[in-house]
């Protein structure tokens, strides 16, 4: 059937130029759809081919039943793909390997090429090795290039070898900020056709683009690769949650406070796998930067996207960020012509409804380990005192200072000693005090102080979530200015850092004259990249790290990021809090979480005690500096040669040719193993027999737990591999930087230092019981998996709710598959990880409602048989399969949700499916 079966192809005239468009009003029912579904509808109209996309698919979307559960499958073709280097390097490794696989199967390797724009921003590799000095930025960049030379050479080769693939070099900015400030089109113009910009990315926070009206979300790297190769994304037409905003934010609150409030609300409501769309009069009160902040944290809500329609604020932002007037005119004309322009008086059909009066938002933090655990700033002190008792062992002792906070009594012994064996930790027996373990520390420069539980060891202005927002960034700098003028500086135990999402931030700091104040209190520029938010905090000062670990101190981190999962920020830090940039600085000045920061003095200044109210800038002052200090010319200058890079980048030696020349000695980039021994036709799907449990896990296990991005701990299998290959400990770099080497990443799977495998008692880290050995002793998960593989034993993982939440991290699925795990049985999954498991040929199974490993009496010591999987060979997808675990038998749901996903699983993975289709063609 032709693409014009609805008579939708039409012309749009804009400023003397004519564009082809696919009119939404040609399809009955389209006007009532939410903005996000209108964008999907246009996508189907434009890609209708009678096979993947048919007229029936289009009608199903136009006649969407808002209240129905998702059941209709559609094929969505994104306009472009965006990547960051941690997830992007393995993508390019896979594409390079696919070229060789195509050659080996008799095809043309150059057919492996992106068919739509694919752009990568290198932002995840810079680590805060140096801080608190004017030289920090230059020294960190130098170390970054020294460590990552192999990776960067590989990416430069990819930029020359693949069509439609561009790389934004290191030291430019964070991918999502670069995306909204420069790369995002909002409305595409390609070959004379205008259509909505849609973009999937290999980072879960791709949703930041939702703030400027671009529909997109994070996907696993393998799904992104398939999209680059022209494979549409199979999805069910989702439920859409309408989130109505009214009122205005009160003075003293920030976009961070708002997004933490929304995160808490949406997690409680339940939006996993759903679209969230904002509407109402309150949207007009939100600057574009605030909308982008909200869109950014969609993964923390659990939603697929969190989108704002196009309006005048969108156009103003496009002009500010240097888009030309022709593009801005096209966005306005197209949005108004297609019914994509925000009309606050119109309420589209939504599946579910929520509402927030912006005037009720209060200053907030979130922590100590999940973004949805919002804490009112007024309750931060007593909440920390409660939560720290979960992180400090043997805490009871004589009562410390009186406290009016009330906590549950503890049943622990009356007194025990701390990790140093000398000083007792104290907490009131009724729980009303707080644990102490005061440890004297002297730094190399002679600075002496006492370190205690709750002291802020890391204070980082980091992450695209907030550094893209000039209101909170200017607010932070003004707070720094006020602090300097009152004689304050950071506490000496705080590792401070400033890592903006783009060079524009430092430009407007310079223009406003605020940089010297940030430098004065230790918030010197350390890099343009994710840094602490992704776990690249770098080491604490050795004396501090030793004191923390020798005495089991529960020190804290305060960061302006979007993630605070256990073990993510720093291996030395147990409790992590998300906060606005001004609050990050305030806590660096205070030096502790054990403070009522709204009412207690933050520190002693030159003229006496200084309170937060003495430092906090007014909204009017912030707005005035934003208005006077930020201009279009900044964006035009900084993005003029965004793909060119500096002399370091341009000076990298790169191989040539269509096929990459693999270096067997490389510990960064190795040929991927996914296509080894792959035939032109897939093997039949088989049931699983005699499987053992590799890990039995609880609720909220994140992709960080499964595949950490941060430091590689000495003594672990990954560290041993690197040392065996001649890598010194100081050059280990991070797991994230080594994702192009499957040997490191397999060994790092389930290696998070905070992972708790319930097969073991009170043990943290990447360990399990090895049932191939007499007595099933404790072993590294990697070592046990190798023993199981040698014995021909398949593996399963048992888990609780929200399995695989957090980052899009395809290595969480890749590593799982390469360890030999054939199936995961969980109570529920986060969207991206479930999809990634299928994309790697791992079967996602779900306990029946009300069932769990505990309710079924599963200990993880059983041998598992899973039958009924072979029904997939008949072309359909079984709703459930049978699990036998020793004497227990129960049914579980099969979470292969679409026919497209079934095709991927039957082929052993999505890339194998795409590759075989290319060969057939």
UniProtKB/TrEMBL annotation:
Record field: compositional bias (Basic and acidic residues): 417-428
Boundaries of every Aconitase/3-isopropylmalate dehydratase large subunit alpha/beta/alpha domain copy: 64-591
InterPro entries per record: AcnA_IRP_Swivel, Acnase/IPM_dHydase_lsu_aba_1/3, Acoase/IPM_deHydtase_lsu_aba, Aconitase/3IPM_dehydase_swvl, Aconitase/IRP2, Aconitase_4Fe-4S_BS, Aconitase_4Fe-4S_dom, AconitaseA/IPMdHydase_ssu_swvl
All copies of domain Aconitase A/isopropylmalate dehydratase small subunit swivel, residue ranges: 719-849
GO BP annotations listed: propionate metabolic process, methylcitrate cycle; tricarboxylic acid cycle
Known EC number: 4.2.1.3
Cofactor(s) for this UniProt protein: [4Fe-4S] cluster
MF terms (GO), sorted A to Z: aconitate hydratase activity; iron-sulfur cluster binding; metal ion binding; RNA binding
Protein name stated in the entry: Aconitate hydratase A
Record organism: Actinomadura physcomitrii
């Amino acid at each position: 059937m032709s693409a014009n079966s609805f008579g939708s192809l039409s012309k749009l005239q804009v400023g003397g130029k004519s564009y082809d468009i696919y009119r939404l009003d040609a399809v009955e029912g389209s006007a009532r759809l939410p903005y996000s579904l209108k964008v999907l509808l246009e996508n189907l109209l434009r890609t209708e081919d009678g096979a993947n996309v048919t007229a029936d698919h289009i009608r199903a979307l136009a006649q969407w039943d808002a209240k129905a559960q998702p059941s209709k499958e559609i094929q969505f073709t994104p306009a472009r793909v965006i990547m960051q280097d941690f997830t992007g390097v393995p993508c390019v490794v896979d594409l390079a390997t696919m070229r060789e696989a195509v050659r080996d199967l008799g095809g043309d390797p150059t057919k492996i090429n992106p068919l739509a724009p694919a752009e990568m921003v290198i932002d995840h590799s810079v680590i805060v090795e140096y801080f608190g000095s004017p030289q920090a930025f230059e020294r960190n960049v130098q170390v970054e290039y020294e460590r990552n030379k192999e990776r960067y050479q590989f990416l430069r080769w990819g930029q020359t070898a693949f069509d439609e693939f561009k790389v934004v070099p290191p030291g430019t900015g964070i991918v999502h900020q670069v995306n909204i400030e420069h790369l995002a089109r909002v409305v595409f113009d390609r070959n004379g056709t205008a259509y909505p910009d849609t973009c999937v990315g290999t980072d879960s926070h791709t949703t930041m683009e939702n703030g400027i009206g671009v529909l997109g979300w994070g996907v696993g790297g393998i799904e992104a690769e398939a999209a680059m190769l022209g494979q549409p994304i199979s999805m069910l037409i989702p439920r859409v949650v309408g989130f109505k905003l009214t009122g205005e934010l009160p003075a003293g609150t920030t976009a961070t406070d708002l997004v933490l409030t929304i995160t808490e609300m949406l997690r409680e409501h339940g939006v996993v796998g759903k679209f969230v769309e904002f509407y109402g009069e309150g949207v007009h009160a939100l600057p574009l930067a605030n909308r982008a902040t909200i869109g950014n944290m969609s993964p923390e809500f659990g939603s697929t996207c969190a989108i704002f329609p196009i309006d005048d604020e969108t156009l103003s932002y496009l002009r500010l960020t240097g888009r030309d007037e022709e593009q801005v005119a096209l966005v306005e004309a197209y949005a108004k012509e297609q019914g994509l322009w925000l009309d606050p008086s119109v309420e589209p059909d939504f599946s579910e409804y929520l509402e927030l009066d912006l005037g009720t938002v209060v200053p907030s933090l979130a922590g100590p380990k999940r973004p949805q655990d919002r804490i009112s700033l007024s309750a931060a002190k007593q909440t920390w005192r409660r939560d720290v008792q979960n992180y400090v062992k043997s805490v009871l002792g004589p009562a410390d200072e009186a406290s009016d906070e009330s906590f549950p009594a503890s049943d622990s012994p009356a007194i025990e000693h701390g990790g140093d064996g000398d000083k007792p930790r104290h907490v009131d027996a009724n729980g009303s005090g707080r644990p102490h373990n005061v440890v004297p520390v002297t730094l190399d420069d002679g600075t002496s102080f006492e370190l205690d539980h709750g002291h802020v060891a890391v204070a980082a202005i980091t992450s695209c979530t907030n550094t893209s927002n000039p209101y909170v960034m200017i607010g932070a700098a003004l707070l720094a200015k006020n602090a300097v003028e009152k004689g304050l500086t950071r506490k000496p135990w705080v590792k401070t850092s400033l890592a903006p999402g783009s060079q524009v931030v430092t430009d407007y700091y310079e223009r406003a004259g605020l940089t010297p104040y940030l430098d004065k209190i230790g918030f010197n520029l350390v890099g343009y990249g994710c840094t602490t938010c992704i776990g690249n905090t770098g080491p604490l000062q050795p004396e501090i790290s030793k004191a923390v670990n020798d005495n089991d101190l529960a020190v804290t981190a305060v960061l302006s990021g979007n993630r605070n999962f256990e073990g993510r920020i720093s291996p030395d830090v147990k409790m992590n809090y998300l906060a606005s940039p001004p609050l990050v600085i305030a806590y660096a000045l205070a030096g502790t979480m054990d403070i009522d920061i709204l009412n207690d003095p933050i520190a002693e200044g030159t003229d006496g005690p200084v309170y937060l109210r003495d430092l906090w800038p007014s909204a009017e002052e912030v707005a005035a500096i934003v208005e006077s200090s930020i201009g279009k010319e900044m964006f035009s200058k900084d993005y003029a040669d965004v793909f060119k890079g500096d002399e370091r980048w341009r000076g990298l030696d790169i191989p040539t040719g269509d096929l990459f020349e693999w270096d067997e000695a490389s510990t960064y980039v190795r040929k991927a193993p996914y296509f080894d021994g792959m035939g032109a036709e897939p093997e039949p799907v088989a049931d699983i027999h005699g499987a053992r449990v590799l890990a039995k896990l609880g609720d909220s296990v994140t992709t960080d737990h499964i595949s950490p991005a941060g430091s590689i701990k000495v003594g672990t299998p990954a560290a041993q591999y690197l040392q065996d290959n001649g890598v010194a400990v100081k050059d280990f770099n991070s797991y994230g930087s080594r994702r192009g080497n499957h040997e490191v990443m397999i060994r790092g799977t389930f290696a998070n230092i905070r992972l708790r495998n319930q097969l073991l008692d009170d043990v943290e880290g990447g360990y399990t019981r090895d049932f191939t050995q007499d007595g099933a002793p404790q072993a590294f998960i990697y070592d046990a998996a190798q023993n199981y593989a040698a014995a021909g034993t398949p593996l399963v993982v048992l888990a609780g709710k929200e399995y695989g939440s957090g980052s899009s991290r395809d290595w969480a699925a890749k590593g799982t598959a390469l360890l030999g795990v054939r199936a995961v049985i969980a109570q529920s999954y986060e969207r991206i990880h479930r999809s990634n498991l299928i994309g790697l040929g791992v079967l996602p199974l779900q306990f029946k409602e009300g069932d769990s490993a505990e309710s079924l009496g599963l200990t993880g010591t059983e041998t598992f048989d899973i039958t009924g999987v072979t029904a997939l060979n008949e072309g359909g997808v079984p709703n459930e399969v049978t699990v036998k675990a020793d004497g227990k038998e129960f049914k579980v749901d099969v979470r292969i949700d679409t026919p497209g996903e079934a095709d991927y699983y039957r082929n052993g993975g999505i890339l194998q499916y795409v590759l075989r289709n290319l060969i057939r063609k």
